[in-house]
Amino acid sequence: MAETIQDLLELSLQDTYSAENQILAALPELEDAATSPKLKQAFREHREQTERQVERLEEVCEMLGIEPDGESCAAMEGLVEEADDLMEELEEGPVLDAALIGAAQKVEHYEMAAYGTLCSMLKSMGQTKAVDLLLQTLKEEKDTDALLTQLAEQEVNPAAMQTLPAKE
After folding, report:
1. Interval 96-142: pLDDT, tens
2. % the chain with pLDDT above 70
3. CA 20 vs CA 16, 56, 88, 134, 162: distances in Å
4. Cβ of 111: how many Cβ atoms within 10 Å?
5. InterPro entries this protein is in (predicted)?
6. What sign has the CA pseudo-torsion 118, 122, 127, 131?
7. Could you tell me which of 64, 79, 157 has the C-alpha nearest to residue 113?
């Protein structure tokens, strides 16, 4: 049972570590399902970035004497399951690509919230080195979200619009 801010920090770090590992496992499936070469590349690059983010979390946990493995992140399980459902329900093509971007952005927003919360707690505890490490990750998550928005607006959504029937 969490009774102190230290307990909450430990639970939050473990939850985020689980979330990152779950998305790391899911990214190859997202990459395979995508048809847009730019989207495939974005998923591939984010997988490499996520590997570094997991390493940063491990480093922060080690600095603080916290075991990173804990409960599985239920929120990420739900987000990954939602993406899996989309891949089953939609045919390969631009509409699925648009759905994959939406699913990935939900993940990014969850991660941004998690890292923002962790940074606030760590800052309050005077853990400036840990804050600096996790701020790097927070910036990467925001940059990935911006890249996904750009891909959606400039390429994927216009291609998906072509699937609409012509107006008479």
Report:
1. 999 999 999 999 999 999 999 999 999 999 999 999 999 999 999 99
2. 99
3. 6, 11, 23, 13, 34
4. 25
5. DUF892_YciF-like, Ferritin-like, Ferritin-like_SF, YciF
6. positive
7. 79
Within 10 angstroms of residue 95's Cβ, the number of other Cβ atoms is: 20
Distances (CA, A) of 128 to 56, 135, 138: 14, 10, 15
CA distance 17 to 70: 9
Domain boundaries, the chain: 5-157
Token pair of 56 as six digits: 């940063």
Integer Cα distance of 61 and 136 in angstroms: 16
- What architecture does CATH give domain 5-157? Up-down Bundle (1.20)
Cβ proximity of 148 and 108 under 8 Å: yes
What is the rounded CA–CA span in Å between residue 17 and residue 54? 7
Cα–Cα distance for residue pair 165/31, rounded to 1 Å: 28
Cut 0.90: pTM above it: yes
Q: Find how far residue 122's CA is from the centre of its chain.
A: 21
